[in-house]
Amino acid sequence: MVDTLNVIVAAAGSGNRMNKSINKQYLTIRSRPILSYCLEVFEHSPLVNKVLIVVKESEIGFCHKEIVERYGYKKVRKVIAGGAERQDSVWAGLNSLEQSTGLVAVHDGARPFITEQLLTKLVCTAVQWGSAIPGVPVKDTVKLVDEEGFVSRTLDRSRIFFIQTPQVFRLEYLMMAYQKAVEEQFVATDDASIYEKYVGKVKIVPGDYRNIKITTPEDLST
Known about the structure:
This protein is of the alpha/beta class. It is built from 6 helices and 12 strands. It has a single domain (5-134, 162-221), classed as Spore Coat Polysaccharide Biosynthesis Protein SpsA, Chain A (Alpha-Beta Complex).
């Protein structure tokens, strides 16, 4: 049904907004590290071939011992060092996959509540369209604000979505897009933005409001 799916888990962020002494992906929810939740889904999904985790260089040994070995994740083939920014880390991950075809999913290690059902929908959509990202409609009114702090206009929220991960693409297309972004020093906040700029349209799949990114201490109580 699908091509080979490899997963890059981006977990090299510093998590400064958590005000914790350890990086947020190693904090626990219900006695398990945040990072372990998404790895559990990837480990048991029949769609996933292998997983690559990108962390800070100083955390490679810790991640391998306390996450990969402790919980027995056989599909995690590598734990590698990331870069200064998320984009640098994903690029490092792409270059470590040792293949150029199939599908690749890029997921934030701080999003523990991904489901296998969402992953399946994304993969099936990416097979058809070459790309698939999860998104949920915004619930609040959204306004564009000028530099002086005044509302310049109200946006049509029916066409505005909060975008999540995992984001799934044809590997060769995302590699090409990232290569061009590196050459042109184009910086984006997610992989889809790079794909949009250098490849083409990105298909939205209905996401899950529970699939939040753990960013602040308040998120741990959700």
